[in-house]
Amino acid sequence: MSYKIGLVFVFVLTIGYCSAQQKPQYTQYIFNNYLLNPALSGIENYTDVKLGFRQQWQGITDAPRTSFVSANWALGDDYLWKNPLTMPANGEPPMSRNYMQNYMSSPAHHGVGFVAVVDKAGPISTVNLNATYAYHLELNDALNLSVGVAAGFNRVALDANALQLENPQDPALSNTIISQFKPDVGLGIWLYGARFFAGASAQQILPQKLSFTSDPAYTQGKEVAHYFVTAGYKLFFNEDISAIPSLMFRHAKATPLSVDANLKISFKDRFWIGGSYRKNDSYAALAGININNFMNLTYAYDLTTSELRSYTNGSHEIVLGFQLNNIYHVLSSTRMW
After folding, report:
1. Every domain of the chain and the residues it spans
2. CB neighbour list of residue 40: distance below 8 Å, 6 or more residues apart
3. For strand 196-203 and strand 208-209, is the pairing parallel, antiparallel, or unpaired?
4. Phi and psi (nearest 5°) for 146?
5. Which residue, 164, 150, 205, 196, is CA-closest to 39?
6. Which pLDDT tens digit goes with each residue over 132-189?
7. Cβ atoms 175, 215 nearer than 8 A
8. b vs e for 72-94, b when ≥16 Cβ sit within 10 Å of the residue's Cβ?
9. Which percentage of the chain shows pLDDT scores above 90?
10. Which Pfam families match (predicted)?
11. 29-324 falls under which CATH superfamily?
């Protein structure tokens, strides 16, 4: 009987993991869409590096925690053009109203990068490593379209010591699969111009079985594809103050459609504040600063509105960014908003 209880526990754990959204969620998606869409590889005129950490549902034991590092850059020297109408110099706000009037699309080029994400929720931890590639096509003088692909692997592990069974020596644990590697592929497309962006992507598109026990009666788990659609537009209050409203739709099989609405208000592209709403889940406050032309820092606090609000103090997310090889000394991103 104890053996069967142990197997059922592992089985339920597996199904619970596999029927939920297996990819982490990010409140600050608008500042690093590259995490969700490989088509942004090499979109900037410098090497864009970001380090991030998210503590989901602070106050709940073993709640999800996510850490990531990402970097992407353009290939070749041709992309580092010196046309002053295309790229402002000496720290001039690259997304100012005046700059928009002279905006020019980037020349066709290739971009590459990598993403490493470590996510832990309860006894299950996932390590995702992906290399990315994108080609940016110049549609006209003010519009680009990029397509991208990500390829790598997921390592999914179960901490059997964290399982609390009636009998710690339950034979069920002897059949536990501690870790497993699964190939991972993602695709994306991104359309961008002077004042707007829109894109769609799919992650984890290769069907993969996922089970934490070798017993053939309990092998119903599987990895599921995740789909993302996002768009945003830049508005100006005056030369110094701008606002970017954006939306993101996210869907994974057997889960409700997730909708994020986001608003960022920026002052001279140096400081910004914002707010976000995730349907049936949370509200969030966001803030950030471009410290100089090398470093930027952003923070988000999510206030939970779901039934978990009685048990958690909310969620925290912080991201530190670096702009390497920033030869034009711009303070903020020119094409990643």
Report:
1. 29-324
2. 33, 34, 72, 111, 134, 146, 148, 188, 190, 199, 336
3. unpaired
4. -120, 150
5. 150
6. 999 999 999 889 999 999 999 998 888 777 666 666 666 656 666 677 888 999 999 9
7. yes
8. bbbeeeebeeeeeebbbeebbbb
9. 38
10. PorP_SprF (PF11751)
11. monomeric porin ompg (2.40.160.40)
- Structure tokens belonging to residue 319: 């991201």
